[in-house]
Model the fold of this input.
Amino acid sequence: MKNIKQIKNKVMLSARKPEDFSGLSLDEDTYSVVLKPASQLTYQYMADLIYEIVVNKLKKDPSIVAILDWGAGKAQLSYFLKKRGFENITLSEIKGYPHTKLWKHNKTKKITLPKDEKLPISSKSYDIVISAGVLEHVPHDQASLSELQRILKDDGLLFCFNLPTKLGYIHQLSKLLGNYYHDRLYSKREVKYLLKRAGLKPILIYRRQLLPKKKINYRNPIMMDRVDAVLGILPFISLGSASLEFVAKNQDCHQ
Done:
């Protein structure tokens, strides 16, 4: 897929505005991921990137594209995907996951994740599978990637966001402070190796997010988002980014 890096850079540098969620009566502590503007804008970016690649590279209508939001959490990413015209979204989470207010608002299909890596999904079911801050938390990342590859259609794409990087200064600082929330950190080389063993091939792999999003209430989050985007595409400086992100396809797909 030619020019996919240009699409990513264009989306990163595009201006976005935080959305007002006051009408949904979301708990501030539980849903800070969308109520804090800086955090919300990063999920808007993810939705924008998926939209641009689906429309301009896959040449598909978003309304008919089958998406699995694997480990959907509070459904914040799927909320913004729905806003961009994606209708066929399935959310998956562990049994008993409590924070489902946006799930109900989105009115999307749901799948309960089993305790092991095996997904209760037929092979080649989805055009798009999304992992946003999930892969680093599962017990066996290699087995999970293989399962995600199995349920992708032949021309499907896997989008992975918020994968913590070994060089990310935020993660190194957290370790020094005794916070080991991410017990696994990744390098580009390791990601490529994992993908290859799972039958996947990266068509885009990059670093993102130098500035922290969840802990700071920025006076001007829109400007912060633009500055962070510029820093994220600069050589050397971007090496300190918190996230390693990628888009991958099946190795036997010749698009």
Remarks:
- Residues 4-250 form a domain with the Rossmann fold fold (CATH 3.40.50.150).
- The longest strand covers residues 152-164.
